Protein: MFS transporter
Organism: Psychrobacillus lasiicapitis
Amino acid sequence: MEEVLKLKRATYHLWTFTISKMISSFGAQVYAFAISFYILQLTGSASNFALNLICSILPRTLVAPFAGYAADRYSRKMIVIVAQIATTLAILGLLIVSLRADLSLVAIYTTTVVLSLASTFSSVTFSSSITGLVDEGRIQKAMSMNQMSISFAAIGGPALGGLLYGAVPMPVFLVMYMVASIIAVILESTMNFTLFAKRKEVVEGEEKEPMLQSMKEGLRYLKNQPILKAIVWISLFINFLFGAYMVGYSFILIEKLKVASEHFGLTEGAFAVGMLLLSIYFSTRKEVKYPLLLSKRSIVIMGILMGAVALPLIFSMSYNITFGYYAVLMFCLGAAMIITNTPMQVMMQKMIEDDYKGRVFSIIETMAMALMPLGTVIYGFLYDLLPAEGILIVSSLLLIAVVLILARPSVIRTAHPELK
């Protein structure tokens, strides 16, 4: 009877978690859209816009290890709720400033830093809590539904922001985000984060491990898990090499091929639709039997698709064929990204012990967040010096080579002994 009640509670968590993420992600997307436009209209400066991005990325990179330590040492439910309340208060502060006077860049940057810090604690803690919220058989469903909510927000957020921007004043955007954040707090407060958790009990009077020592212990744990180590290295190389696509895609379509802004937006929408449909598929199907093998094959396909972005620069195509080609390509790339990420995330959720999840996920987040700006800067510099098609093709070949080496047959057999 108790087991049946736990499973019912897990089903409740599945939906509460998804709705909470969707509401907060949607609010964040609409806010990000409105603030980006506001900064560009206020200053007309790309550097001010870029500074807002730095205020978002840099705090995440610096704070992620501390978020991981907190997630492994303190109440995960409390961390998630406090982070969401901090988000609400930051938006309330910006709302008060906007009602008393015009929004200043200092107020926007300060709010962006607070939102970034709160988001880091919330995302690392939620990632660490999946196996405590739902039963083992539905981890893939939980990961897929989480991705589904993010994809919905990625599609709908900018669309709603675009419809409202100019029609309603900035305080309306802030109130929308604040209401979304309050609903998320209420939903998260009803969840039991320890329903299926297997964390060690803290003994009364036992001395807590110092923070630095605890972080080192997380690194040591990661080093002693060869499969986990391989997954982390693959993730890092993908994050870095995908800078070729992140920078090159917009550059090629807008600068080189002169694709109209509305058509460019539709191709990016196709990417989000590909992610959404595959997330729905994974949420309804059985768990993948050989996750690392499937992810390996999917990364190879992603490498091929990344190289294919350069084809219209090599072979002449009409405008309509070019637009259709990129729409299909982006749809496939979005789908491949989910096929790569979901099985890997499920595998990591099952492999990492509950007491180390916060630190391991924070290490991954820190390194990935550090490599993304680095990749963007390096590729931005390369695209000014070298032909775009050459950069994309070489990067795609490197990506394929990296995954074939790091996920070689011996590593796959270690991860899935039944393949022997």
User: Anything to note?
Assistant: Residues 211-419 form a domain with the Growth Hormone; Chain: A; fold (CATH 1.20.1250.20). Residues 316 and 322 are 9 Å apart (CA to CA). The chain has 16 helices and no strands. The chain has two domains: 2-189, 211-419.
